[in-house]
Amino acid sequence: MVAFTGKRDILANTLERTGTGSLLSATIGQWNGLVVFNYHRIGDPSETLLDHALFSATATEFDQQVRFLKRNFDVIGVADLPRVLHDSSARAVMITFDDGYIDNYEIAFPILQQHDAAALFFIASGYLDDHPVAWWDEVAWMVRTSGLRQLCWEKHFPQSLSLENEESTRRTIREILLKLKSIPEENADNFLIQLGEVTGTGRCPCEVSDQLWMSWDMVREMDQSGIDFGGHTVNHPVLANCDVDRQRMEISNSKQRIEAELGHSITTFSYPVGQRDSFTEETKKLLEQAGYEWGFSFYGGYCPASQFDPYDLKRMPVEERVHQNLFRSIARLPQFFAKK
Question: Domain 7-132+212-337, what fold?
């Protein structure tokens, strides 16, 4: 795990190493409501050419995190949401995952079972059906396989982007993804075509994703064991970049597809990308019209009891920068640490 030295990291390390964090949480730092942690992938990012930023934790780290949450908090599922969000004495947490990567089944699921921990998985139904290369993974693949030391793309980036080392490569991938997330959805495919030309790689081969996504059999097995599932659109577009008809299709069709495979209704949805500008008030209305009761965002924060928007339940990203002491501080003192 990469070491971080920001003020928040230093404070979290101090609180956990001295035991002050648990003391503060039980006294002046008391809170009520719900803290939602969100993951994407579990494993070792160095083993893939795809997007390293999607890896939230190693198997060992995830095991430690689940064990900590189970020992110290009420780890809840979807059925508990109404109770927790209206209970002034509740101090609950949720474990959620986005997208539907196969490591969710192969690595995360057994760990959750071992600790008897509830969890909620949001899946992009089209990814399980068609096994495409996700756009963020395709960007990472093109950049990492280009063989370039500098990426020159003046149309979108006035200054060349460095690929000199791993740190600069990650930064370049992040910059390209930020640009892609900001453009209208109808222009996204052309953007990827142009990137393939600029890098000299062409588009990422489809076979790269052959073994990348969970199967519906895996989803049903998890569902039957008590794991919750929710919608995450069909094709994972940034909904705010889509017209209303496209948003409605992505929201409704994914719900119908998942329900058909599971044989029962689902009530939760997470917005792709999930930042404040990734969905709109119209998007939230479309969720309600489709029959969803809860919508989850992804820009940090937590949900104090009786002070929440059911279509904007805040989640705290678990990613490389969230080391174990910071993870524990977020859970113990979310009012101070649950910020992205």
Answer: TIM Barrel (3.20.20)
